[in-house]
UniProtKB/TrEMBL annotation:
Gene3D superfamilies: Cobalt-precorrin-4 Transmethylase, Domain 1 (3.40.1010.10), Methyltransferase, Cobalt-precorrin-4 Transmethylase, Domain 2 (3.30.950.10). The keyword Methyltransferase applies. This is uroporphyrinogen-III C-methyltransferase. Residues 18-227 form the Tetrapyrrole methylase domain. It comes from the Bacteria. InterPro entries: 4pyrrol_Mease, 4pyrrol_Methylase_sf, 4pyrrole_Mease_sub1, 4pyrrole_Mease_sub2, CobA/CysG_C, Siro_Cobalamin_biosynth, Uropor_MeTrfase_CS. Keywords: Methyltransferase, Porphyrin biosynthesis, S-adenosyl-L-methionine, Transferase. The gene is cobA. One of its GO terms (biological process) is methylation. Its EC number is 2.1.1.107. It is an enzyme of class 2 (transferase).
Amino acid sequence: MTDLPSSHDWPRMQPGWVWLCGAGPGDPGLLTLHALNALRQADVIVYDALVGEAVLDWAPQAELIYAGKRGGKPSAKQRDISLRLVELARAGRRVLRLKGGDPFVFGRGGEEAQTLVQHGVPIRIVPGITAGIAGLAYAGIPVTHRDVNQSVTFVTGHDASGNAPAALDWAGIARGSQVIVIYMGMKHIGQIAARLIEAGRAPSEPVAVTTTATLEGQRTIETTLARVEADIAAAGLEPPAIICVGLAVALRQALDWQAQARGEGPRDTDPLDRRRPAESA
């Protein structure tokens, strides 16, 4: 597929505009058609660390500018990135700001959009598929299930300072959300797990950790809230990772579709037909 269907009136990227676009969780097949349309038109693409070459290959005509931010590694300052977008737009370029996942889900897209608007730069927002849903789906974990949970909470595992978010009401989250999905939480998962247990979550509650979600090297471990930090270390997992806490993780025993595609049968066709996690390990 090299061209979009002509039957639809696809939006045109105009000089001096910035489109803030989600590239999805990694698998290039999870790009939206609007994202592909943007890739085919951009003069310059400012892209993040989680945007892969297979996605950028859709834009051979564009200048590529890397603006990735990875925890613990030298990274461009956010204000510099935002002002660079302003500069490129004012130079009359068709600018695509490409972010992994969705630009407005823990992607600082809102900050960049606000800076652009404040400088009079016209913008378009192109949502993307976020890893907190798609990455878990690729691991065989539905973030909602009628028999398991009627709520899901998405949280970040670190704040602007790089520490575990102190402003979050962990006790309230522990009590109020049946399933918790944590982005960028591997570094502080020990602290986060301890806070959730202290707030009343069972130490034996199921936890899944998925790395390199939706890509060929995807790995998922199943563990418990009490053991998640130790099991991550034992497995040698590295970020980026999505962490899911809750009974929905048990459904992976039946719904690990990638394992089944390799010829492995489901480990349990009805994993919910058992007692819920005990209140203590």
